[in-house]
C-alpha cells in the first residue's frame, strides 16, 4: 500500500500537467486541422490581377508596332464550372495611341500628320476552355495549363489630341477631344461592343497561386477608336479648331508633295472597311479563393 501511495504521489501531478498542457494545445490543434483543410476542400473561384503592353490596330499605326509601356490593367474573377470549362468576368483599363509622325518618311501617312491618344475602360464576360481536364482538386492542378478564351463585352473610348493654339497672346499645346469636334462630321458613340478572344498559359507557383501569360485580342465594332475612318469633310471656316483637328496635313514642311496634294475634302482620311482592334500582352497573378462548394461546379 505504501508503494501505491508513492506512485500516486508521483503520477497525479504528472497527469494534471498533461491535462493542462492538452487543454492549452486544443486551440492550436483546431487551427492545425483548419490549416490542413485546404488540402481536402477544393477551390473553384480565383481572382486575377493583370498588366502588360497593348497593341492597337488601326489607321494611325501603319508600322504595326506595340506600345512598349505597361499600358493596361485588368481584374478578373473566374469560376471553374466543368472539368475543361470556366466562366470569367473582367474589368480593365487600357491606353492606346497612334501617330502619323512614326510612319515611314515621305509616306502618305506622314503627310496626313494625324495623331491620337485614348484612355479607355472595358468590361467583358468570357468562357475559358482548358486543353486538359481538371486534375481533381485545385492544389493538384497541372503545373502548366494551356487554355483559350472567347466572349463578348463593351469598351469606352474618347480619343484626344494636342494642337498648338494662341491663347491670351501665348502659344500653348492645348488638349482637344476629337469626338467633340466631329472631325469627320460624324457623331459616333463613346461605347462599342467588343469580342475578346485569347490564348493563355497558367503556371502553378504555389498551391494557392498561378502566374499566367495571355495574348488577349479584342475585335471592336467601331472604326473610331482612333477618330479616323472615312474621308476629309469640307468646312466653311478653314481657320476653325474643327478644321485644324480634321486636316493636319504637314503643318511645317512637306516631304511628299504629291501625297500632300491628295489630302483634300472628299479624299480618303481612313479606311472604313476595317474596324479598329487592339491586343493585350498580359501577365497575371491569380489567387485561388475559399468557398464555392456545390453541384454546379466542376462537373464531368
How would you portray this structure in words?
This protein is of the alpha+beta class and 300 residues long. The chain has one domain: Porin (Beta Barrel), CATH 2.40.160.20. Helices cover 17% and strands 41% of the residues. The protein has an 8-stranded antiparallel beta barrel. Strands 6-7 form a two-stranded antiparallel sheet. A hairpin with a 2-residue loop joins β6 (160-167) and β7 (170-177). Mean pLDDT is 87; it is low at 2-7 and 28-40.
Key terms:
elongated; eight-stranded antiparallel beta barrel; alpha+beta; Porin; 41% strand; 10 strands; two-stranded antiparallel sheet
CATH architecture: Beta Barrel
> Which residues sit in consecutive blocks of at least 5 with pLDDT less than 50?
2-7, 28-40
Q: Cα-atom Rg, whole angstroms?
A: 31 Å
* CATH third-tier fold name: Porin
> What's the number of helices?
4
Overall geometry comes to elongated
- First and last CA, distance: 70 Å
- Count of domain modules: 1
The whole-number mean of residue pLDDT values reads: 87
Number of strands: 10
Largest sheet: 8 strands, antiparallel, barrel
How are the SSEs ordered, and which strands pair?
Elements (H helix, E strand, L loop, with lengths): L1 H35 L8 E13 L14 E9 L4 E15 L8 H5 L2 E16 L13 E13 L3 E8 L2 E8 L13 E16 L2 E12 L20 H6 L10 H6 L14 E13 L11
Antiparallel strand pairs: 1-2, 1-10, 2-3, 3-4, 4-5, 5-8, 6-7, 8-9, 9-10
